[in-house]
Design brief:
heterodimer, A: 429 residues, FAD/NAD(P)-binding domain, 5-stranded parallel beta sheet, B: 120 residues, mainly beta, Alpha-Beta Plaits, two-stranded antiparallel ribbon, elongated, disordered C terminus, binds flavin-adenine dinucleotide, binds iron/sulfur cluster
Chain lengths: 429, 120
């Protein structure tokens, strides 16, 4: 019998799930994406392999889920770059990455549906039978993965931010995120900021290179990073507490404008009035690339997370529903989305084959991070944090546990010792 | 009877503030009306307030089996664009009628290929 896995959301996590589901033996894998491009909120990203993400990336490659890391590596503009608080980062080109990921998915014979927003769901006997698109089309499936992310919905950006600022998610055009778990009737959890308000403001913006001083651009292109001191009048430490990315909540980011070369100029600040950025030497005529209205705010994330096991199976939901990425918890980043996505896709096929679901063991940094996040989110304090292999609490804990390393040999041995070498690359039966 | 909000909701929150009995709140992906609280504005206004406030006509009398079939504002009516290994640039999928079951192209059952215009 033909088994079909339907993935709702084409961000990093959904794309990762698609590949492992296919490799695990799903006959048909369909990714439904509401917009006209893959990678969702992640298309503004660019930073890979910084700090503990290096360990995580190499573990995933050894575990057999290396496809997307290879695409990122292929599209990398800068290797082993250091910038404040972050070591050995690889920066990929955000202008070309989505096509690279698309081609990788198509090469795996995965179907990608664009302008296909899911806004309805049909269930019977505790299982999802099909999902329904805005257009009325019904897509049947055997197993479903909620990879809808946690960003989007104008009301979120209005109530918990400064309104829609027209980010790449483009809710007014493609319609807001609709959560699959939400449609299944599950209650979703909301992350909090230290001041108690809901969600978190995305922590970086893209600036248009052509509107920057050519000398700065040349330096940026050559070195991958420029650290431009801010005029004293602009230094605003307060702003750091609102950011999604705790790994960048360091004083260096308040005192300087840190800009990374991701093909575009990625400025590590959640938002900043244009007239203020233009007071920084070299940025006199700069324009925003994303969000268009970066003067007043940024997108709000971590608004809708669902309870799940560390296998990524949704708890108390339909029996054929998995989740991954930001939907699966306060995990920030592409690497984190790829890890949880790989689990969701692989386990979806295991579930269809009636096999026991797998977790990544805590002896590996990747598995440790998943468990650490699950446990952290059980406390109120933990719901006010963000979790990433690249910095902050989780990275500190990884170092303490001796899990952080960039030694490929050590990583290969550790993965070998778990007996899970290549597990995500192989059919489950 | 009560009113309900269809999937056309763009989450603008206009209705929430206007409802005289505070029956409207934000749901997981759009605004929702608590049908046990909604009184169709009887005694307050001649016409339900949300119906009047909503910029996209998403507030309608409640139906028992609402299936989100109304043409949604989202995507401005753009039909799905399906990419496969064989058609990497995509094919526009035209589904006809309410009952269209759009199986993935590989094992399409109910969608007539005649109705799909190619894009590549
Ligand atoms: C501005 C910014 C910069 C960032 N920079 C970095 C970085 O440099 N490095 C890094 O590692 N991480 C970065 N991150 C974080 C990282 O991008 C995210 O944590 C990660 O990509 C989340 O992936 P996801 O798949 O969970 O969600 P998303 O990327 O949000 O993807 C969800 C997808 O689901 C789609 N969708 C939603 N609802 C529906 C529906 N009903 N039907 C169909 N489709 C639907 C959306 O359109 C979207 O494509 C950044 C994030 C932002 C916002
Ligand atoms: S800022 Fe982005 S996520 Fe927020 S409402 Fe606007 S388009 Fe959607
Ligand atoms: S007024 Fe209409 S669009 Fe706005 S929140 Fe209410 S139902 Fe949704």
């Amino acid at each position: 019998m033909t088994k079909r896995v339907v993935i709702v959301g084409g961000g990093w996590s959904g794309c990762s799930a698609a590949i492992t589901a296919r490799n695990a033996g799903a006959d048909e894998v369909v990714v439904l994406e509401r917009s006209d491009e893959l990678l969702g909120a992640g298309i503004v990203g660019g930073i890979m392999r910084n700090n503990g993400r290096y360990t995580a990336a190499e573990e995933m490659i050894a575990l057999g889920a290396g496809d997307l890391f290879e695409v990122c590596d292929d599209h990398s503009l800068h290797h082993n770059l250091d910038f404040p608080g972050h070591k050995h980062s690889w920066l990929y080109n955000v202008n070309t990455i989505a096509n690279g990921v698309r081609d990788a998915l198509l090469a795996h014979d995965i179907e990608i549906w664009f302008t296909s927003r899911v806004n309805g769901l049909h269930q019977s006997d505790g299982s999802i039978d099909s999902v329904e698109l805005d257009s009325g089309a019904i897509i049947e499936g055997d197993c479903f993965i909620d990879a809808t992310g946690s960003v989007g919905g104008q009301s979120w950006c209005t109530d918990n931010g400064n309104g829609c600022v027209m980010c790449v998610v483009r809710c007014p055009t493609f319609g807001p995120r609709v959560s699959l778990s939400g449609l299944a009737g599950l209650t979703e959890r909301e992350g909090r900021r230290p001041d108690g308000s809901l969600g978190a403001v995305s922590g970086s913006v893209k600036l248009n290179k052509e509107t920057m001083d050519p000398k700065l651009v040349a330096e940026l292109d050559a070195n991958g990073v420029i650290i431009v001191p801010m005029p004293q009048s602009l230094i605003n430490h307060q702003k750091l507490t609102t950011k999604a990315c705790q790994q960048y909540a360091l004083p260096a980011y308040a005192e300087n404008l840190v800009v990374l070369d991701t093909g575009q100029a990625k400025a590590v600040t959640p938002y900043m009035p244009l007239h203020e950025i233009r007071q920084i030497p070299g940025f006199e005529t700069v324009r925003y690339e994303d969000p268009y209205a970066g003067t007043v705010g940024n997108s709000i994330r971590y608004a809708a997370m669902v309870r799940r096991e560390d296998t990524m199976k949704v708890i108390d939901g339909p029996d054929n529903l998995f989740c991954c990425g930001e939907k699966s918890g306060l995990l920030v980043g592409h690497t984190e989305a790829i890890v949880t996505g790989a689990l969701a896709g692989h386990n979806a096929v295991r579930a269809l084959a009636g096999l026991e679901l797998i977790e990544i063991p805590v002896d590996l940094a990747t598995g440790y991070g998943v468990k650490y996040t699950t446990e952290g989110m059980e406390t109120e304090e933990g719901m006010g944090k963000k979790y990433t292999y690249s910095g902050s609490f989780l990275f500190d804990a990884m170092i303490e546990e001796g899990l952080y390393t960039t030694d490929h040999g050590v990583i290969a041995d550790r993965v070998q010792a778990t007996g899970m070498n290549g597990v995500f690359a192989h059919k489950v039966t | 009877m009560a009113y309900m909000i269809t999937a056309q909701c763009i989450n603008c929150s206009a209705c929430e503030m206007d409802c005289p009995v505070r029956a409207i709140g934000r749901g997981p992906s759009q605004y929702v009306i608590d049908s046990s609280v909604c009184i169709d504005c009887a005694g307050y206004f001649d016409e339900p307030r949300c119906k009047r406030a909503c910029p996209v006509d998403a507030c309608v009398p409640e139906r028992a089996h609402y299936m989100h079939r109304a043409a949604a504002l989202a995507n401005r009516g753009a039909p799905p664009l399906v990419l496969t290994r064989e058609t990497p640039l995509g094919r526009v999928l035209v589904t006809s009628g309410d009952s269209a079951v759009a199986a993935p192209l590989k094992s399409r059952v109910a969608t007539d290929p005649e109705n799909s215009s190619t894009h590549d």
